[in-house]
Amino acid sequence: MFFELAKTLTDAYSRRFARAVRESYAADEAYASTPLGRAGLAILLLALLAVPLLLPGYPVYVLTLVAIAAIGALGLNLLVGGAGQISLGQAAFLGVGAYAASHLAGPLAPLGILLGGVVAAAIGVVLGLPSLRIKGVYLAIATMAFQFLALWVFNNWEPVTGGIRGRNLPPAEVLGLELDRAERLWYLVLAFAVPLFFYGKRLLATRAGRAWFAVRDNDLSAQVAGVNLTLAKLSAFALSAFYAGIAGGLLANLYRSVTPEYFLFGISVQYLAMVIVGGAGTVLGAVLGAVFVMLIPELLNAVVGAFGPEYAALLAAWRNVVFGGLILLFLILEPLGLVGLWGRIRAYLRTWPLPY
Which residue has the higher pLDDT, 261 or 339? Predict the structure, then answer.
């Protein structure tokens, strides 16, 4: 009797809430395939809209930085985790988008941000040309060379970039409302982030996304199977740069200034760390990686501040060591990243309280 009752309840739960078997491409591309998933998605969107109403100024500012970083990390994730092309120049594309957006600021800020994405995408196509002949560490070195070339341009093309002093931006405006605080700019960031993340998730489930995965796994086999390598690689570089350009434009409007020091080589390494820690090849991995890389230093800062000013200098020197150690420890314990950890937790919750 108890066995039959448990079986009935489990079957009812599985039919209503468990992940459905996907038998078509349309089902595979769906954002949420269960009622519970759709309800969770709606709650998440409402929570994002309520962030400025629930949190004070500085936490909103930090979350805005995280959201912008997640956009840039998603672009790199599509390139590295999707198409398998290594890039160490993501910070350069952030800078291109930021400087382009700085020329259309104020009431034209949304157009400036889009312009930054388009200009970065055009340069991304050019940078993707070497990927047609080289790959692996050689491609990484080529993109790193582009990073240093872009920094030289940012520092020396004064009529466009303002040189070392950079450029200042007026507050962004939308419908006459000045977005002069992070609490207001948050909604502009959401207006760009939400469509970009939905598009990225849908893209990876389409024919183009599967072509990228085939190139990532074995480009010669993909070419034999009919994948256009030129189109796949160049489109991956262009889309990755477009996401980075959008993130750079949003960052410029948040800081209300653009200087070369915002786009150093270390920032590119930081974005690559977001992809690796979060989990390559998934949209969720970009979000989780950005949250980890951006929030852990803030938590360490809070810990350092709790010990008082007399220990601040000593502990601050160890902050980066602890942060790097956490990344290494996490990658050793969970090579698939935060997405792999979340997958194991979700698999456990789906079968709880049953052992199978």
Answer: 261
